[in-house]
Design goal:
This protein is α/β, with parallel strands linked by helices and 225 residues long. The protein has two domains: 2-120, 3-Layer(aba) Sandwich (Rossmann fold), CATH 3.40.50.2300; 124-220, Arc Repressor Mutant, subunit A, CATH 1.10.10. Helix content is 42%, strand content 20%. The chain is built from eight helices and twelve strands. The chain has a five-stranded parallel sheet, with helices on both faces. Strands 6-7-8-9 form a four-stranded antiparallel sheet, covered by helices on one side. A three-stranded antiparallel sheet has the order 10-12-11. Helix 6 crosses helix 7 (171-179) and helix 6 packs across helix 8.
Length: 225
């Protein structure tokens, strides 16, 4: 796990918390060192500050997402910038999650654990969440012995949600990831397909796994809202 944080006290705290939780960490103080560290040993997860001496964390994140070798790296932003506009900017820039300083040890470890579980789940052809099963090869969605019929867009939307459990996703992110970055569709189209997906999941009582995050977008949670 790579920690990119220029404040030595916070960096030492992150290392202490995560290594006590059983994770191996490498800590660097700027984006240039982070890039070199990633090039020599690819991390499973990056904890990234926003305000860094050589480049902002958001700009570094965009550089990552534009690089073929690092575009899929999991990144959690850990920053003191707590305004809604900052959270949206970080998430739209490609962050998988966003933690505001000061944070609790338990919250940090919980969010790291969720991200790493999602990474492991993505290596399987079958995604499982709260009794909901999605087979990426056969394009079947089931709950127990019951099949759920979905249109192709709703299937892709559900698959993306299940690959990003407990991550807050903006409408812009959903459009880019499910419909494609080069397709022009109004963001409210996402709401229409969310309603269709919820309606399809309602008979098996899984519709409340899709949670509305006011002012930001949606979250697919392993626990009903």
């Amino acid at each position: 796990m790579l920690i990119v944080e220029d404040d030595p006290d916070i960096s030492c705290l992150l290392v202490y918390i995560l290594e006590n939780a059983g994770y191996h960490t490498t800590a660097v103080a700027d984006c240039n060192r982070a890039w070199h560290a990633m090039s020599s040993s690819r991390p499973d997860l990056i904890l990234l500050d926003w305000m860094l001496p050589d480049m902002s964390g958001v700009d570094f994140l965009r550089r990552l997402r534009g690089h073929s070798g690092f575009s899929d790296l999991a990144v959690i932003m850990v920053t003191a910038r707590s305004e809604e506009a900052d959270r949206v900017r970080g998430l739209e820039g490609g962050a998988d999650d966003y933690i505001v300083k000061p944070f609790s040890n338990r919250e940090l470890c919980a969010r790291v654990s969720v991200r790493l579980r999602a990474i492991r789940a993505n290596t399987s052809s079958t995604l499982l969440t709260a009794g909901l099963s999605l087979d990426q090869r056969s394009y079947r969605v089931t709950v127990g012995d019951s099949s759920i019929l979905l249109g192709p867009t709703e299937f892709r939307l559900l698959r993306y949600f299940m690959k990003n459990i407990d991550r807050v996703l903006t409408r812009g992110q959903l459009l880019d990831s499910v419909w494609g970055a080069n397709v022009y569709i109004e963001e409210r189209t996402v709401d229409v397909h969310i309603r269709r997906l919820r309606k399809a999941l309602e008979p098996c009582q899984k519709d409340d796994l899709i949670q509305t995050v006011r002012g930001t977008g949606y979250r697919f949670s392993g626990q009903p809202g």
